């Protein structure tokens, strides 16, 4: 059957979407819109994955910091369907940079000219590097160039050592040495997209109530479309049987016609039975970056920068995100300051195993190094999120080694954030990936009709 044929009339197929993050929920929504029957199985007790919300003292907000950008077309369209787009609050934010025991302001050209860690020639080279990156439209060619080589060539060795290397280590640990130039291109490009012309200031947005509210609306929409949602259902095994695809969770076995896994590559490889050696190798070969991210509720604000980049290896976290510099603290945080301290971490990072108390101790010592006026008495609540598979590092020739969406096992598909190329990890990209995947999934499903349908079809 050609992919352009209309959906056959023999009835909806039963789909299982594994993973209730924004990718899985968007897939479920679009499949349901196409007339399919969908069940979402999410391992965690709540929906949202990396974008889920939690309680911090008296505040409910995202467990990882999230902003919306003006250029987040797919996300904003989804928010329109949820009737939330018009509620987005847009704010001009400010940026800080911490190095050489000093907190610098980096909001405009004058701040940049005053930025003393770099000499004038280095500044010109850095500005030229950023400008050149912003003009590249397709980053796939950069996948062939080692990141370090590219940055040294464009910005010079001094600027690389002073600025780029600490920032790259902050984002990827020692994995930066394995990354391609496409990684930094995608990252810088997303930041550039947040800038308005003229003043070149950053505009970030948020929905009042955070992703907690977005997810509640999305769940309501899905339920209204007839989607079954089962949180607290970790999928253990997915296998092809004579009747379709069997999915096993601790609650038992269920047969579906089609299954889409949205979990990270190595998790997907573990769940799906019958994949080829090449598929397993591709899924397990994706190099993931993890995170240990603290949410801190403080009695008072820090410096009012939404993001402060940290280029100081003595500080255990790699950035400071002052959410209350963007979100109205009086309305949402009881007048307090909500701050995130992310530590992007490689697989063996000791902070994954460290006790919460020890992480808190070390992180608060780091915070006091940057903001000496902030003491223990200012901390109202402190909570730590640890995730090992956050984003796939764009290694050399990454696109050539991507795991395919549709596997060799009929009815089993893997659509996950590792397939986001030419962009950096963001909800907008997850929504876009889901929307691009659905027509392909439907086309494959048509070529693999369920047994009950094959038996009904005329010979
Ligand atoms: C610190 C941080 C800051 C960020 N900031 C921004 C930002 O400012 N703006 C932005 O747009 N994006 C941001 N992001 C990125 C954004 O959160 C992600 O792009 C998005 O949430 C990814 O959604 P996903 O569904 O692809 O993956 P996930 O959210 O990881 O969803 C995968 C789901 O699969 C589930 N799962 C795994 N195994 C199983 C199993 N065996 N059975 C059932 N379920 C399973 C997981 O529990 C999870 O819920 C940020 C991310 C982080 C970590």
Describe the structure concisely for a colleague.
The chain is an alpha/beta fold and 459 residues long. The protein has helices at residues 22-33, 73-81, 109-114, 120-135, 147-155, 157-172, 181-193, 210-224, 265-271, 277-285, 329-332, 356-370, 427-446, 451-456; strands at residues 14-18, 37-41, 53-56, 59-62, 68-69, 89-93, 95-99, 102-105, 202-206, 228-230, 237-241, 244-249, 252-256, 258-261, 288-298, 307-310, 319-322, 337-345, 379-392, 412-414. The chain has 3 domains: 14-45 and 231-286 and 401-456, FAD/NAD(P)-binding domain (3-Layer(bba) Sandwich), CATH 3.50.50.60; 53-92 and 288-392, Polyamine Oxidase, Chain A, domain 2; 119-200, no CATH class.
Strand order in the largest sheet: 8-7-16-17-18-15-19
- Which CATH class of the largest domain? Alpha Beta
The average pLDDT value, as a whole number, equals 91
- The SS-based structural class is alpha/beta
Shape, principal axes of CA atoms: globular
Low-confidence stretches: 1-9
Number of strands: 20
- Our count of helices gives 14
**How many domain units?**
3
Q: Report strand %.
A: 15-25%
Beginning-to-end CA distance, first to last residue: 15 Å
Helix and strand arrangement:
Elements: E1 14-18, H1 22-33, E2 37-41, E3 53-56, E4 59-62, E5 68-69, H2 73-81, E6 89-93, E7 95-99, E8 102-105, H3 109-114, H4 120-135, H5 147-155, H6 157-172, H7 181-193, E9 202-206, H8 210-224, E10 228-230, E11 237-241, E12 244-249, E13 252-256, E14 258-261, H9 265-271, H10 277-285, E15 288-298, E16 307-310, E17 319-322, H11 329-332, E18 337-345, H12 356-370, E19 379-392, E20 412-414, H13 427-446, H14 451-456
The structure holds flavin-adenine dinucleotide.
